[in-house]
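Input record (one chain):
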Amino acid sequence: MRVGFVGLGIMGKPMARNIIKQGFETYLFDLNTDAINELVESGGHACNSTKEVAEKSELIITMLPTGKHVSQVLFSNDGIAENSKPGTIIVDMSSVSTEESKSVAIRLKEYDLHFIDAPVSGGEPMAIEGTLSIMAGGNEDQFNIALPVLKAMGENIVLFGENGTGTAAKLANQIIVSSNLVALSEACVYASKAGIDLNKLFEGIRGGLAGSAVMDAKMPLIIDRNFEPGGKMETNYKDLRNIQSSAAAIGVPLPVTNLVKEIFGSGIANGNALNDHSFVIDFFEKMANYQTPKGGKY
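The corresponding structure, as predicted from the sequence alone:
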Protein backbone atom coordinates (compact mmCIF):
# COMPACT_ATOMS: atom_id res chain seq x y z
CA MET A 1 0.00 0.00 0.00
CA ARG A 2 1.25 3.48 -0.90
CA VAL A 3 0.90 5.70 2.15
CA GLY A 4 1.02 9.49 2.28
CA PHE A 5 1.93 11.32 5.47
CA VAL A 6 1.43 15.06 6.00
CA GLY A 7 2.66 16.63 9.24
CA LEU A 8 6.08 15.58 10.53
CA GLY A 9 6.26 17.29 13.91
CA ILE A 10 7.08 15.90 17.36
CA MET A 11 4.54 13.11 16.91
CA GLY A 12 4.24 12.82 13.14
CA LYS A 13 7.92 12.24 12.37
CA PRO A 14 8.37 9.11 14.51
CA MET A 15 4.97 7.81 13.43
CA ALA A 16 5.93 8.15 9.76
CA ARG A 17 9.30 6.54 10.46
CA ASN A 18 7.58 3.48 11.91
CA ILE A 19 5.39 3.17 8.81
CA ILE A 20 8.51 3.27 6.65
CA LYS A 21 10.19 0.65 8.86
CA GLN A 22 7.26 -1.70 8.27
CA GLY A 23 7.94 -1.58 4.54
CA PHE A 24 5.15 0.70 3.36
CA GLU A 25 5.96 2.92 0.38
CA THR A 26 5.60 6.25 2.15
CA TYR A 27 5.25 9.72 0.60
CA LEU A 28 6.03 12.64 2.87
CA PHE A 29 5.23 16.34 3.10
CA ASP A 30 5.84 18.98 5.74
CA LEU A 31 6.82 22.64 5.70
CA ASN A 32 9.92 21.55 7.63
CA THR A 33 12.15 20.15 4.88
CA ASP A 34 14.70 18.93 7.45
CA ALA A 35 12.10 16.52 8.82
CA ILE A 36 11.38 15.24 5.31
CA ASN A 37 15.06 14.78 4.53
CA GLU A 38 15.62 12.87 7.75
CA LEU A 39 12.87 10.41 6.85
CA VAL A 40 14.09 10.12 3.26
CA GLU A 41 17.31 8.73 4.75
CA SER A 42 15.14 6.08 6.42
CA GLY A 43 13.55 5.11 3.10
CA GLY A 44 10.68 7.57 2.68
CA HIS A 45 9.90 9.56 -0.45
CA ALA A 46 9.93 13.37 -0.39
CA CYS A 47 7.05 15.32 -1.95
CA ASN A 48 7.00 19.01 -2.79
CA SER A 49 3.31 19.53 -2.03
CA THR A 50 0.18 17.97 -0.59
CA LYS A 51 -1.01 17.63 -4.18
CA GLU A 52 1.94 15.36 -4.95
CA VAL A 53 1.21 13.28 -1.84
CA ALA A 54 -2.41 12.91 -2.95
CA GLU A 55 -1.50 11.86 -6.47
CA LYS A 56 0.87 9.12 -5.30
CA SER A 57 -0.98 7.63 -2.30
CA GLU A 58 -3.77 5.14 -1.65
CA LEU A 59 -4.08 6.03 2.03
CA ILE A 60 -3.15 9.45 3.42
CA ILE A 61 -2.46 10.32 7.05
CA THR A 62 -2.61 13.86 8.42
CA MET A 63 -1.03 14.71 11.77
CA LEU A 64 -1.45 18.46 12.19
CA PRO A 65 -1.70 21.04 15.01
CA THR A 66 -5.37 22.09 14.71
CA GLY A 67 -8.58 21.50 12.80
CA LYS A 68 -7.88 24.66 10.83
CA HIS A 69 -4.66 23.16 9.52
CA VAL A 70 -6.42 19.89 8.67
CA SER A 71 -9.06 21.71 6.62
CA GLN A 72 -6.43 23.76 4.82
CA VAL A 73 -4.39 20.68 3.86
CA LEU A 74 -7.46 18.76 2.74
CA PHE A 75 -9.55 21.40 1.01
CA SER A 76 -7.22 24.06 -0.44
CA ASN A 77 -7.06 24.33 -4.23
CA ASP A 78 -3.92 22.20 -4.40
CA GLY A 79 -4.91 20.06 -1.45
CA ILE A 80 -5.59 16.43 -0.86
CA ALA A 81 -9.33 16.29 -1.58
CA GLU A 82 -9.18 17.65 -5.13
CA ASN A 83 -6.14 15.61 -6.12
CA SER A 84 -6.75 12.19 -4.56
CA LYS A 85 -8.05 9.27 -6.54
CA PRO A 86 -11.66 8.25 -5.75
CA GLY A 87 -11.73 5.67 -2.99
CA THR A 88 -8.63 6.98 -1.23
CA ILE A 89 -8.76 6.65 2.55
CA ILE A 90 -7.94 9.78 4.53
CA VAL A 91 -6.91 9.13 8.15
CA ASP A 92 -6.71 12.22 10.34
CA MET A 93 -4.68 11.51 13.47
CA SER A 94 -4.68 15.12 14.67
CA SER A 95 -6.37 16.23 17.89
CA VAL A 96 -9.46 18.18 16.80
CA SER A 97 -13.07 18.54 17.92
CA THR A 98 -15.78 16.00 17.16
CA GLU A 99 -17.64 18.62 15.13
CA GLU A 100 -14.57 19.19 12.96
CA SER A 101 -14.12 15.47 12.33
CA LYS A 102 -17.76 15.00 11.37
CA SER A 103 -17.63 18.01 9.06
CA VAL A 104 -14.49 16.73 7.32
CA ALA A 105 -16.09 13.31 6.80
CA ILE A 106 -19.14 14.86 5.15
CA ARG A 107 -17.07 17.12 2.88
CA LEU A 108 -14.78 14.28 1.77
CA LYS A 109 -17.77 12.19 0.68
CA GLU A 110 -18.40 14.82 -2.00
CA TYR A 111 -15.03 13.84 -3.49
CA ASP A 112 -15.76 10.08 -3.18
CA LEU A 113 -13.11 9.80 -0.47
CA HIS A 114 -13.29 7.80 2.74
CA PHE A 115 -12.48 9.29 6.15
CA ILE A 116 -11.31 7.85 9.46
CA ASP A 117 -10.70 10.03 12.50
CA ALA A 118 -7.93 8.30 14.46
CA PRO A 119 -6.31 10.52 17.11
CA VAL A 120 -3.62 9.06 19.33
CA SER A 121 -2.47 9.00 22.93
CA GLY A 122 0.94 8.22 24.37
CA GLY A 123 3.09 11.22 23.54
CA GLU A 124 6.45 11.28 21.83
CA PRO A 125 7.96 8.27 23.66
CA MET A 126 5.20 5.92 22.50
CA ALA A 127 5.23 7.49 19.04
CA ILE A 128 8.92 6.58 18.81
CA GLU A 129 8.31 3.06 20.13
CA GLY A 130 5.30 2.50 17.87
CA THR A 131 3.10 1.71 20.87
CA LEU A 132 0.53 4.51 20.68
CA SER A 133 -3.11 4.06 21.61
CA ILE A 134 -5.20 4.85 18.53
CA MET A 135 -8.88 5.76 18.80
CA ALA A 136 -10.74 5.46 15.52
CA GLY A 137 -14.11 6.45 14.13
CA GLY A 138 -15.36 5.50 10.69
CA ASN A 139 -16.55 2.69 8.42
CA GLU A 140 -15.43 -0.74 9.61
CA ASP A 141 -14.42 -1.95 6.14
CA GLN A 142 -12.21 1.09 5.57
CA PHE A 143 -10.81 0.77 9.09
CA ASN A 144 -9.78 -2.82 8.37
CA ILE A 145 -7.99 -1.70 5.20
CA ALA A 146 -6.12 0.95 7.18
CA LEU A 147 -5.41 -1.33 10.15
CA PRO A 148 -2.03 -2.72 8.96
CA VAL A 149 -0.74 0.85 8.66
CA LEU A 150 -2.19 1.80 12.06
CA LYS A 151 -0.49 -1.23 13.59
CA ALA A 152 2.86 0.16 12.45
CA MET A 153 2.28 3.09 14.82
CA GLY A 154 0.27 1.69 17.70
CA GLU A 155 -0.63 -1.29 19.84
CA ASN A 156 -3.99 -0.50 21.41
CA ILE A 157 -6.17 0.28 18.37
CA VAL A 158 -9.94 0.48 18.80
CA LEU A 159 -12.74 1.36 16.36
CA PHE A 160 -15.40 3.10 18.46
CA GLY A 161 -18.08 3.63 15.82
CA GLU A 162 -18.99 6.19 13.17
CA ASN A 163 -17.00 9.27 12.25
CA GLY A 164 -16.45 11.52 15.25
CA THR A 165 -16.40 8.77 17.87
CA GLY A 166 -12.63 8.35 17.63
CA THR A 167 -12.20 12.05 18.27
CA ALA A 168 -14.70 11.92 21.15
CA ALA A 169 -12.75 9.05 22.71
CA LYS A 170 -9.52 11.06 22.41
CA LEU A 171 -11.15 14.04 24.09
CA ALA A 172 -12.38 11.81 26.93
CA ASN A 173 -8.81 10.54 27.19
CA GLN A 174 -7.55 14.12 27.45
CA ILE A 175 -9.94 14.90 30.30
CA ILE A 176 -8.28 12.09 32.25
CA VAL A 177 -4.71 12.90 31.20
CA SER A 178 -4.95 16.63 31.88
CA SER A 179 -6.73 16.14 35.20
CA ASN A 180 -4.07 13.60 36.21
CA LEU A 181 -1.29 16.05 35.33
CA VAL A 182 -2.92 18.72 37.47
CA ALA A 183 -3.48 16.37 40.42
CA LEU A 184 0.07 14.99 40.17
CA SER A 185 1.54 18.49 40.11
CA GLU A 186 -0.50 19.65 43.09
CA ALA A 187 0.48 16.54 45.06
CA CYS A 188 4.18 16.93 44.26
CA VAL A 189 4.28 20.55 45.44
CA TYR A 190 2.44 19.66 48.64
CA ALA A 191 4.61 16.60 49.39
CA SER A 192 7.89 18.31 48.60
CA LYS A 193 7.14 21.36 50.73
CA ALA A 194 6.13 18.98 53.51
CA GLY A 195 9.68 17.60 53.40
CA ILE A 196 9.21 14.43 51.33
CA ASP A 197 11.82 13.29 48.80
CA LEU A 198 9.87 13.05 45.53
CA ASN A 199 11.85 9.98 44.52
CA LYS A 200 10.55 8.17 47.60
CA LEU A 201 7.04 9.47 46.98
CA PHE A 202 7.16 8.04 43.47
CA GLU A 203 8.47 4.72 44.78
CA GLY A 204 5.93 4.57 47.55
CA ILE A 205 2.70 5.33 45.69
CA ARG A 206 3.18 4.32 42.05
CA GLY A 207 2.13 0.72 42.72
CA GLY A 208 -1.04 1.71 44.58
CA LEU A 209 -4.36 3.16 43.50
CA ALA A 210 -2.78 6.58 42.83
CA GLY A 211 -0.39 5.08 40.28
CA SER A 212 -1.03 5.76 36.60
CA ALA A 213 0.61 5.86 33.19
CA VAL A 214 0.70 9.66 33.59
CA MET A 215 2.63 9.32 36.85
CA ASP A 216 5.07 6.79 35.36
CA ALA A 217 5.75 9.00 32.34
CA LYS A 218 5.79 12.44 33.95
CA MET A 219 6.92 12.21 37.56
CA PRO A 220 10.53 11.42 36.55
CA LEU A 221 10.46 14.58 34.42
CA ILE A 222 9.13 16.61 37.32
CA ILE A 223 11.86 15.22 39.59
CA ASP A 224 14.53 16.05 36.99
CA ARG A 225 12.83 19.37 36.16
CA ASN A 226 13.09 18.37 32.52
CA PHE A 227 10.31 20.18 30.70
CA GLU A 228 11.43 19.70 27.12
CA PRO A 229 8.20 18.98 25.27
CA GLY A 230 7.02 15.46 24.67
CA GLY A 231 3.50 16.83 24.82
CA LYS A 232 3.13 20.60 24.83
CA MET A 233 1.11 22.75 27.24
CA GLU A 234 -0.55 24.43 24.26
CA THR A 235 -1.73 21.06 22.92
CA ASN A 236 -3.48 20.15 26.17
CA TYR A 237 -5.06 23.58 26.31
CA LYS A 238 -6.30 23.24 22.73
CA ASP A 239 -7.75 19.81 23.51
CA LEU A 240 -9.48 21.13 26.63
CA ARG A 241 -11.07 23.91 24.59
CA ASN A 242 -12.25 21.33 22.04
CA ILE A 243 -13.71 19.27 24.89
CA GLN A 244 -15.65 22.30 26.13
CA SER A 245 -17.04 22.92 22.66
CA SER A 246 -18.04 19.31 22.05
CA ALA A 247 -19.56 18.89 25.51
CA ALA A 248 -21.59 22.08 25.17
CA ALA A 249 -23.00 20.82 21.86
CA ILE A 250 -24.46 17.72 23.56
CA GLY A 251 -25.33 19.28 26.92
CA VAL A 252 -22.68 17.74 29.18
CA PRO A 253 -21.42 19.90 32.08
CA LEU A 254 -17.69 19.61 32.81
CA PRO A 255 -16.97 21.36 36.12
CA VAL A 256 -13.62 19.64 36.77
CA THR A 257 -12.44 19.89 33.18
CA ASN A 258 -13.29 23.58 33.06
CA LEU A 259 -11.11 24.22 36.13
CA VAL A 260 -8.25 22.16 34.64
CA LYS A 261 -8.53 24.15 31.42
CA GLU A 262 -8.15 27.44 33.31
CA ILE A 263 -5.03 26.11 35.06
CA PHE A 264 -3.48 25.22 31.71
CA GLY A 265 -4.67 28.57 30.36
CA SER A 266 -2.70 30.32 33.11
CA GLY A 267 0.42 28.51 31.92
CA ILE A 268 -0.20 29.63 28.36
CA ALA A 269 -0.73 33.23 29.49
CA ASN A 270 2.60 33.11 31.34
CA GLY A 271 4.54 32.14 28.23
CA ASN A 272 4.80 28.39 28.82
CA ALA A 273 2.91 27.16 25.76
CA LEU A 274 5.85 25.21 24.34
CA ASN A 275 6.94 23.56 27.58
CA ASP A 276 6.05 19.96 28.31
CA HIS A 277 2.55 19.64 29.75
CA SER A 278 4.08 18.46 33.05
CA PHE A 279 5.16 22.09 33.49
CA VAL A 280 1.62 22.71 34.70
CA ILE A 281 3.35 22.19 38.08
CA ASP A 282 4.56 25.80 37.72
CA PHE A 283 1.01 26.98 38.49
CA PHE A 284 1.03 25.25 41.87
CA GLU A 285 4.61 26.23 42.64
CA LYS A 286 3.77 29.90 42.16
CA MET A 287 0.70 29.59 44.36
CA ALA A 288 2.78 27.95 47.11
CA ASN A 289 5.80 30.26 46.61
CA TYR A 290 7.88 27.11 46.41
CA GLN A 291 9.76 25.23 43.69
CA THR A 292 10.27 21.48 43.83
CA PRO A 293 14.01 20.74 43.83
CA LYS A 294 15.83 19.22 40.88
CA GLY A 295 16.63 15.64 41.84
CA GLY A 296 13.58 15.37 44.10
CA LYS A 297 15.11 16.49 47.40
CA TYR A 298 17.21 19.27 48.90
